[in-house]
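Quick review question:
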């Protein structure tokens, strides 16, 4: 990642295929991300999805993880222009995305949307207010109905490459 230097004793490694990244210390994983790419959300434009984001809970590694998720996410947006949430519907995933959405709404270089994959015409809903995201859109995206909620995905894109509904 340009501009990122791992703390002393840590190594940031990217798999040869570019689909997995790990922050290691003495062969112990402190942070890991797996990525998939696709073109189904914004036809003709590649997007990436972090299908796995994991960080250790061990206290001795927390200093090395400060802002790493945010930096990694920005790097993904610099690389692919569009990042889409996954459909796993976990509590940790929700918290991760709520942070990313709040950061993106505050940054004029990004556009935040929800893609509803079960609606005809690939319906897009734009989000530009954190309060409205918390009160309305977050509960709309995350829920227990697998037939509905797993098809509602959050999208963050760079303004210059935003898909247009």
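Suggested answer, residue by residue:
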């Amino acid at each position: 990642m340009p501009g990122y230097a791992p703390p002393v004793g840590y190594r940031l490694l990217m798999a040869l295929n570019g689909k997995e990244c790990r922050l290691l210390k003495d062969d112990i994983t402190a942070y890991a991300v797996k990525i998939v790419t696709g073109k189904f959300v914004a036809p003709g434009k590649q997007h990436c999805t972090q299908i796995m984001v994991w960080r250790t809970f061990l206290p001795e590694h927390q200093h090395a993880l400060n802002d790493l998720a945010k930096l990694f996410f920005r790097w993904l947006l610099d690389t692919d222009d569009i990042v889409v949430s996954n459909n796993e519907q976990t509590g940790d995933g929700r918290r991760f995305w709520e942070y990313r959405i709040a950061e993106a709404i505050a940054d004029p270089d990004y556009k935040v949307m929800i893609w509803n994959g079960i609606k005809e015409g690939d319906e897009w809903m734009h989000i530009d207010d954190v309060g409205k995201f918390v009160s309305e859109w977050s509960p709309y995206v995350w829920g227990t109905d697998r037939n509905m909620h797993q098809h509602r995905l959050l999208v963050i894109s760079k303004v210059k490459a935003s898909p247009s509904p």
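Why it works: The helical segments are 62-65, 68-80, 91-105, 130-141, 146-149. The chain has one domain: 10-161.
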